[in-house]
């Protein structure tokens, strides 16, 4: 075990064995590893393996530093006057008004003190894209999609996302779930976006080990994502066409009125779904593409399509910097194919629901318009946009019905 990275309790494997400065050094090391091509999660995992001395609070603090930089990479680089891990951390901490002298003090494993040149932080950026922490090419797309909300939305994406839970109403009610969570040190408050949604206000790191979670009383799920499902028609045969890990399928199953089939082009993504469904006490069948076709028609087909994830860039901030115009066009092609395939599976008078966690018109309204231009006999029965807020992620959903 390295010794100088830890404080005076270095042999006790405490939750917070590292000094604040050592945590900054760790974040710098991880950001530098990312500039050599590692993804954030890979770089964090590698650091954690090499840093067994770090306690859970240390790991959480280092992770927060890294993801804070990813959300604010452009302003961090601007204030830090460079792209190195050290420059990014200095820029971020300057922007956060942190005590730089204390953090960059060269003691133990803390980073060396800032040089005079590093300390010459520039004044606030005049450039709009930098100020909004967006790549240049995305600014017009934000303007087109969000109009006067564009700046506020981009700025909201700089902050940490809320941690939301879905109370499994198949098992319990909201008040009982809150009590159960409270007994285990997790404080919550009702989230206005959906009846079963809670926002975690304290003890988020205890959720995964809690009885409430392990016994299926609550699931981690963004509140806007829950609201999208809550707006869907109840009853009947339902196909979750892009089920992935099954978050929406589980939410769909909760009211017990629907017979649910989950499908994904990559069935491995649904690998945990049977266990998650069993834990939640709900029934979800998984099916391959051929079985899904044989089993048509469905009263409701939900397409929770792959997308840029721009509405959820607070959680997956790397996407903001790795998305390209070419990839966006590629995603649009996939989204069109999914809608075309799914439309063939919907019963007469049935509903085709399309959802993305994207903010961009290209992935949302434009895909729906293109679908309607390709297919006669469908009409929009509902269309909703969810803003990026302290309550939930940005989302888009449309319900199309067969005339
Ligand atoms: C946004 S994710 C789904 C998330 C999931 N619904 C949830 O709530 O946890 C999109 C999923 O669509 C799947 N997918 C991509 N192309 C597809 C296609 N042509 N048909 C069906 N699924 C597809 C991907 O494998 C991915 O798992």
Automatic annotation (TrEMBL):
GO BP annotations listed: RNA methylation
Active site per UniProt: 357 (nucleophile)
Start and end residues of each SAM-dependent MTase RsmB/NOP-type domain: 153-403
Keyword S-adenosyl-L-methionine: yes
Binding site for S-adenosyl-L-methionine: 264, 304
GO MF annotation, one: RNA binding
Entry keyword set: Methyltransferase, RNA-binding, S-adenosyl-L-methionine, Transferase
InterPro entries in UniProt: MeTrfase_RsmB-F_NOP2_cat (IPR049560), MeTrfase_RsmB-F_NOP2_dom (IPR001678), RCMT (IPR023267), RsmB-like_ferredoxin (IPR054728), SAM-dependent_MTases_sf (IPR029063)
Membrane spanning stretches: none
Pfam families hit by this protein: Methyltr_RsmB-F, RsmF-B_ferredox
PANTHER family hit by this protein: NOP2 YEAST -RELATED NOL1/NOP2/FMU SUN DOMAIN-CONTAINING, RIBOSOMAL RNA SMALL SUBUNIT METHYLTRANSFERASE B-RELATED
Family: Belongs to the class I-like SAM-binding methyltransferase superfamily. RsmB/NOP family.
Name listed for the protein in its UniProt record: 16S rRNA (Cytosine967-C5)-methyltransferase
